[in-house]
């Protein structure tokens, strides 16, 4: 089972990264405003499946390296830590603009919504790099991989679903909040600080 201390660090880290406005969250908000929350759930299904696929692929790759090339895993930890630090600095420097998406049609089919969510999740190279960098520090090589992965994936799925639901139901009010003043900038800075912290922890662990 996943160590409770690691879980306590992973929860807020992934939550703030997930809730920070990006393509998936902005897509959920746009669809929630244009076609309604209920139909937006179809997009969420595709997005969650895509995120699960990315996370599973990342963990399988990390596990393979961890088991067969332990020295290379140490290198990966350093590279991952430095990358997380870089991402954290970039989030601090971000100007906090909402992602732009084309207007959505209310006539779009449920299958198209699922496809849209799935493609949005798996087509983002930053999502892949983020999963590969973030997951290794929360995996204990001395414990069984499957229970740890199930726990991490459960947190990821729950956090993504809650975040997208908040964006979809928040609609115009959430958009006003996010575009007002420095709200997005401070969300980016909180998430960025967590990224830098986890990066240092990963390098020093």
Automatic annotation (TrEMBL):
Location(s), subcellular: Cell membrane
Keywords, alphabetical: Cell membrane, Membrane, Transmembrane, Transmembrane helix
UniProt key word Aminoacyl-tRNA synthetase: no
Gene Ontology MF terms in the entry: homoserine transmembrane transporter activity
Superkingdom of the source species: Bacteria
Record GO cellular component, one term: plasma membrane
Pfam families referenced in this protein's UniProt entry, alphabetically: LysE
Transmembrane segment boundaries: 6-29, 41-69, 75-92, 145-166, 186-204
Name of the protein this chain belongs to: LysE family translocator
UniProt organism field: Shewanella canadensis
């Amino acid at each position: 089972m996943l160590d409770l201390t690691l879980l306590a660090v992973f929860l807020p880290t992934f939550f703030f990264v997930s809730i920070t406005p990006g393509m998936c969250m902005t897509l959920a908000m746009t669809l929630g405003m244009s076609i309604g929350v209920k139909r937006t759930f179809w997009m969420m299904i595709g997005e969650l499946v895509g995120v699960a696929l990315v996370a599973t692929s990342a963990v399988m790759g990390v596990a393979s390296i961890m088991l067969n090339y332990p020295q290379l895993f140490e290198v990966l930890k350093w590279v991952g830590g430095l990358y997380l630090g870089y991402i954290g600095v970039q989030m601090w420097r971000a100007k906090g603009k909402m992602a732009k998406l084309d207007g959505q049609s209310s006539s779009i089919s449920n299958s198209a919504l699922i496809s849209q969510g799935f493609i949005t999740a798996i087509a983002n190279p930053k999502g892949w790099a983020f999963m590969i960098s973030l997951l290794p520090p929360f995996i204990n090589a001395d414990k069984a991989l499957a229970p740890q992965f199930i726990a991490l994936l459960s947190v990821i799925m729950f956090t993504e679903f809650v975040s997208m639901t908040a964006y979809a139901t928040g609609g115009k009010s959430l958009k006003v909040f996010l575009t007002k003043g420095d709200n997005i900038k401070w969300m980016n800075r909180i998430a960025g600080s967590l990224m830098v912290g986890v990066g240092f922890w990963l390098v020093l662990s």
